[in-house]
Write a structure and sequence with these properties.
The complex is a heterodimer. By secondary structure, chain A is α/β, with parallel strands linked by helices. Chain A is built from five helices and 13 strands. Chain A has one domain: Glutaconate Coenzyme A-transferase (3-Layer(aba) Sandwich). In chain A, a hairpin with a 2-residue loop joins strand 11 and strand 12. Chain B is 27% helix and 21% strand. Chain B contains eight helices and eleven strands. The N and C termini of chain B lie far apart (60 Å). Classes of the chains: A alpha/beta, B alpha/beta.
């Protein structure tokens, strides 16, 4: 069985999408890992009201945990120079107004760039939206990192969403454990494939039809 | 300053006496940071029923930490008929309170849930504070959020009508207050607390420290006291006091850090 990209490598590849001077918001799950790989000078925002926080506290430096320094994933962070605090009205104006490059997880992305992220499963009767709809709708650029297939092997990149829609036509780039795909008006363009994988193999594991980029290459870090 | 100034510092029992059956109660609720857990327990003790609880998230305390001061909104569950929240931590609840505890209540009609987004919730509270009739928002179009709401095209763009929320009671957490009710916060514990203080008809605040009028730098006051009705200083012996929280973070740092990691993994975008 061929190896797929690890979560760490996906996070590294997604972080490469950030440009100097960007401010970003990192969703829960794999996107949180991107914090380890983002270039210097990029400020990270958290929905509960902080921009420009430092590295997260880990169990190795747990004594640094401060009850007032907690991000949106209930993780404690360390302070950093240039950090600012604000209330959540200010925070969501930032989020909705195209000022942030955002990296989110995803459950499904459609051929048009529709995103499903807020529902844990089809059985859940009450959605868990949080800030995901605001983040997806308002992002300057939206990168989605997710595994290419579900545990049952179902494609998460689909013609039409089977899960409830979180935000229509919002995704710009999809980074999976098999490929990097750009959402364009011409469709989903396959730009990069994981080392050892061929274009037909990736297409076979993808429900939506992929447009093959002329210069498709191996995933570059 | 001449004349009499109303001292807003009072006992928690006095503050809670103004909460009544059927009230809409709003609070910031986001784990260990900025959540008025002391007032949650005080409201549970007060016992008002049929409450609607409007909160940023509804998440239980991590197992074992609820008794040592970690804010826990689940103490209010028996009093609630409705929850307005963008995030109901059902997966976390399955671990803490047993399989589908909340789901069963929702399915049987005992508990109503109004789903919204964090951004919409903030602006709905803000609209309440400004006495607006509502506002048009583009976020949530074509999703569960637009269900049952009026839509309108403005300058060629489609929007959904979001109604304001004007809660009867706000439970707020701040770092310090003076006797006028002026508030300062710390770090990301500010969060939704200032907008909740503005939006509610009655605002009750829990603080670690009360100072004299004039001690807070007017440049740094975030919530002017005019938005505040009652200030309660958390007693030193309570698990939510400054001293006890400091001890909690000293003695349980690894557990607290570990929980953040787990709760994060259980949310959006992960299977």
């Amino acid at each position: 069985m061929k190896e797929r990209l690890s979560e760490e490598v996906m996070a590294m590849r997604a972080a490469k999408e950030l440009e100097a001077g960007d401010s970003c918001n990192l969703g829960l799950g794999t996107p949180q890992l991107c914090a380890l790989y983002i270039p210097e000078g990029i400020q990270v925002q958290a929905e509960n009201g902080v921009l420009g926080y430092g590295p997260l506290v880990t169990t190795d430096n747990a004594e640094m945990a401060d009850p007032a320094l907690m991000d949106a994933g209930s993780r404690f962070y360390t302070p950093a120079p240039g950090m600012s605090f604000f209330d959540m009205l200010t925070s969501f104006a930032m989020i909705r107004s195209g000022r942030l490059t955002t990296i989110l997880g995803g459950l499904e992305v459609s051929g048009k760039g529709d995103l499903a992220i807020h529902s844990m499963s089809e059985a859940d009767e009450y959605p868990q939206i949080g800030g995901a709809m605001d983040l997806a709708w308002g992002a300057k650029k939206l990168i989605v990192t997710m595994t290419h297939n579900t545990r049952d092997g179902k494609s998460k990149i689909v013609k039409e969403l089977s899960l409830p829609l979180s935000s229509p036509e919002c995704v710009d780039i999809i980074v999976t454990d098999l490929a990097v795909i750009e959402v364009t008006p011409e469709g989903l363009v396959l730009k990069e494939v994981a080392p050892g994988w061929t274009v037909p193999e990736v297409q076979a594991l993808t429900e939506a039809r992929l447009v093959i980029s002329e210069d498709v290459k191996e995933v570059e870090l | 300053m001449g004349g009499q100034v109303r001292d807003k510092i009072c006992s928690v029992a006095e503050a809670m006496a103004d909460v009544h059956d059927g009230d809409v109660v709003a609070a910031h609720c986001w784990g260990a940071c900025g959540t008025p857990g002391y007032l949650f327990r005080a409201l549970a003790a007060r016992g008002a029923n049929d409450l609607t609880f409007c909160c940023t998230n509804f998440l239980p305390a991590p197992p074992g930490l609820e008794d040592i001061g970690y804010p826990d909104p689940t103490v209010l569950l028996p009093q609630l008929k409705k929850i307005i929240t963008p995030f109901l931590g059902t997966r976390a609840f399955r671990g803490v309170l047993g399989e589908d505890f909340l789901g069963d209540r929702v399915k049987s009609g005992q508990l109503e849930v109004d789903a919204t987004t964090h951004g919409a919730l903030m602006e709905r509270l803000h609209a309440g504070a400004m006495e607006l009739g509502g506002f048009y928002s583009p976020v949530g179009l074509k999703t569960v959020v637009e269900k049952g709401k009026e839509k309108r095209v403005i300058d060629g763009k489609e929007y959904i009508l979001e109604k304001p929320i004007r809660p009867d009671v706000g439970l707020v957490k701040a770092l310090k207050a003076d006797k006028l009710g002026n508030l300062v916060y710390r770090g990301s514990a500010r969060a939704a607390n200032p907008v909740i203080a503005m939006a509610c008809r009655l605002t009750i605040v829990e603080v670690w420290e009360v100072v004299e009028v004039g001690e807070l730098d007017p440049e740094l006051i975030v919530t002017p006291g005019i938005y505040v009705d009652h200030v309660v200083k958390i007693p030193d012996e309570d698990p939510a006091s400054a001293k006890r929280v400091e001890e909690l973070f000293k003695n349980f740092a690894r557990e607290l850090v570990g929980f953040g990691t787990e709760s994060g993994d259980s949310q959006g975008g992960q299977e």
